[in-house]
Amino acid sequence: MPQHRHRQQKRRPRPRKQGLSSNRCVIEGEVVEPEGLRYTPAGLARVAFKLRHTSMQQEAGMQRQVQCVVPALALGEAAMQVSRLQPGQQVRAEGFLAQRSLKIVQLVLHIDNVTLR
Amino acid sequence: MPIIRVALDVPLSTLFDYVGSEKAQLEIGQRVLVPFGRKQVLGVAMEWAESSGLAADRIKPLTQALDDVPPLPQELLTLLRFCSDYYHYPLGMTVLSALPTRLRTVEPIAVKQSLDYTLSAAGRALDLATLPKRRVVQQRILQALREAPLSGAQLRSLSATAPAALKVLLEAGWVETCSPQPRTTHTFNDAHALTDEQQRAVDAVTQQQGYGCFLLHGITGSGKTEVYVHLMHEMLQRDGQVLLLVPEINLTPQLENYFRSRFPDVDLVSLHSSLADGERAQNWLKAQSGEARIVLGTRLAVFTPLPKLSLILVDEEHDPSFKQQDGLRYSARDVAIFRANQRGVPIVLGSATPSLESWYNAKSGRYRLLQLKQRAVQPATLPIVRCMDVTVLPLQDGLSEPLLTAIENRLQRKEQSLIFINRRGYAPVLMCTACGWLSECKHCAGKLVLHQKDRSLRCHHCGAQQRVPHACPTCGDADLKPVGIGTQRLEETLQTRFPEARILRVDRDSTRNKGAWSAMRKQIHDGEADILIGTQMLAKGHDFPNLTLVGVISPDGALYSADFRASEKLFAQLTQVGGRAGRADKAGEVIVQTAFPNHPLFQALRAHDYEIWAQTLLAERQMAGFPPFVYQVLLSAEGKQLGEVNAFLQQARNAAKELQMPVEIYGVVPAAMPKRANHHRAQLLVQSDKRKALGEFLRAWKPTLDALPAQKLRWVLDVDPMEF
């Protein structure tokens, strides 16, 4: 696999600094582009989808409109929950943020809980 | 006191002296039982000696001379001595490894005498009309035996169920056995008229007096087999035996059936390692007695005693499987050439893509070149080869849109497609995209291959196996990704895309069970599969008439390879796999997905021009000083401690330098797979442009190697190495 040789050096997990471990994100929005239920090679359920969020938020003392599309990923039990959702449904999703991959810095919301709104 | 010198299966390059008792009628080549240490072991009597270097009282007497089978002929012993000498492998082990396993044991073997069948008095008196009409086969056998006694092979040619019917007739007492009649004629089903090219090739070989080496270069589908059949026919008429060497065990049943159908009453035996020990020994003995007229076998068959040998054929002579990779590392093709020379008989090397060594010899006049440039079945033309540039075309799970469309067309036309990918498993590696972890083998330098069916990671080098981890062992991310494509993944992708298609995956995993492969072959022939996904197993020699498309996925690895033969092998493989397309009356198409569509290899492939490719490669090899312009020997060592391995090779290198002989020494370098099954591997390459110089060097070097301390490592000397 010559094309992966540059990735070969083993990376150790970065040492976790005390007090800097907060990573919690809650967002509400509409389910868009849900991929079908898939499984990881080990057999764990996995669903990727996107959340379209629109709301009014306060910024510098003023009301403003906010919109964004958040790429999201659910594994295991959360994936089963997500797989039952229909596109267009309004949900509240909780989870943590992580980089898409070692090389792609795009953030992905890893969902551990999702509820219908 | 007569001293008999015996070859024993021990790693010492000497013969062992024993006292041959006067009583025993002992012949050279006979198997003997001798005391060795505290054990009794089997050996082969090699030569008589006047005296021994040992004191008389230390020479033990021979226990027993085994006379259950005839002694090995002198010619075979000479051949084995040559092999031992040329490949620098202990003579005893060479001789014993040439024997079928069953003959390496002491228990006497009963030589099955094949008998002829004739009508008994009762059978002659029998009125055929009284037999029930539906016993067609029995009637046919009785009818045939009225004319003359027949052999088992001749009776078998009457019907597929002849053996069962014969058994009934024997039990009824109408048929009895009799001793075999010498036979001079045979039936030859001359189904096809030879083309002019084929006829010229046949004539050239049959007119050869004594030794001659012919290189039969015929494009795929040009009817090389037909040339073999006609040559066999000619040699059988001259009362000779023919040895046909083929590369793969998988091909032998198919070929065996084919040759049987052409020569229904000729005694034909096959020899390969998947035969049961008993059967292999019987077939070997049949060859030795001269009863078997055609011997079909893989590389080990080259050591079969053949008293009436009159022709050797080596099919797909370029195939790497002719080179044994352990023990006596012989090349069956080269040994066959030596043997033909020694016996003064012609030898034909056949291939669509000859090895560069053979091609060079043919071009320089050492071999005679016979060419078949047309496909034998007239409407059949060579397939159109197209290259898809994967650097431009988007891929869906490794498949480009033009290839998918081509497959779809075949499905609509009810024709078969073959997708060739030389990687079994689901994906060659499992990766964690979050931290970069790769599924590496703990014991080897290679990666663990993902096998999705049983959720395991397997090492294809050492066989280590583990369950797929639930999460990355380094960072804990559960979202692990298979990287790259193997046969299983391709199967899944194609099944999703073409849910109606019947897909058959042919690789070592799906054909592991006995009989699985032949069942699949039948499925393919009966048109019960639409898409075949296969590794090199599918590339060789199979003729599937309804196959019109071959897709080749990621062949580029060979273009990066450190092995200088990789591109030669790739061309051979692609030519062969491409040759599967459109062999009957339908035009074939080959689609290659590559990142280098303009590489000379693919240009030559598109033009179906082996010659220009061979010319390019030969020029490269000459410039770089590689075989066939030099002769090589590889000393490779492996051991648990890298330091010890390197130290040994360094000493070997120093010893070689001290000899100051005209050879070039390269290394010490790590092997292509630097670690396998916890053993570090490294090597030393010695080469010379003169075979003789290299041989002389080896004779001087080998004793010093034997004397070097090497307790904790294994080393082997590979003459004319094929793998590095």
Keywords:
heterodimer; A: 117 residues; mainly beta; five-stranded mixed β-barrel; 1 helix; 6 strands; B: 724 residues; alpha/beta; seven-stranded parallel β-sheet; six-stranded parallel β-sheet; 32 strands; 23% strand
Chart the SSEs and their pairings.
The complex is a heterodimer of chains A (117) and B (724).
Chain A: E1 25-32, E2 38-39, E3 45-59, E4 62-75, H1 77-83, E5 90-99, E6 107-116
Parallel strand pairs in A: 4-6
Antiparallel strand pairs in A: 1-3, 1-5, 2-3, 3-4, 5-6
Chain B: E1 3-8, E2 16-19, E3 31-36, E4 39-49, E5 64-66, H1 74-87, H2 91-98, E6 116-119, H3 121-125, H4 136-147, E7 150-151, H5 152-156, H6 162-172, E8 175-178, H7 196-206, E9 212-218, H8 224-237, E10 241-245, H9 252-262, E11 268-271, H10 277-289, E12 294-297, E13 309-315, H11 332-343, E14 346-351, H12 356-363, E15 368-372, E16 384-389, E17 395-396, E18 399-400, H13 401-412, E19 416-420, E20 429-431, E21 448-451, E22 456-459, E23 465-467, E24 481-483, H14 487-497, E25 503-506, H15 516-525, E26 531-534, E27 547-552, H16 557-560, H17 566-578, E28 589-594, H18 600-606, H19 610-624, E29 631-639, H20 642-659, E30 664-676, E31 679-688, H21 691-707, E32 713-719
Parallel strand pairs in B: 9-14, 9-15, 10-12, 10-13, 11-12, 13-14, 16-28, 19-26, 19-27, 25-26, 27-28
Antiparallel strand pairs in B: 1-2, 1-4, 3-4, 3-5, 6-7, 6-8, 17-18, 20-24, 21-22, 22-23, 29-31, 29-32, 30-31
Helix pairs in contact in B: 1-2, 7-8, 18-19, 20-21
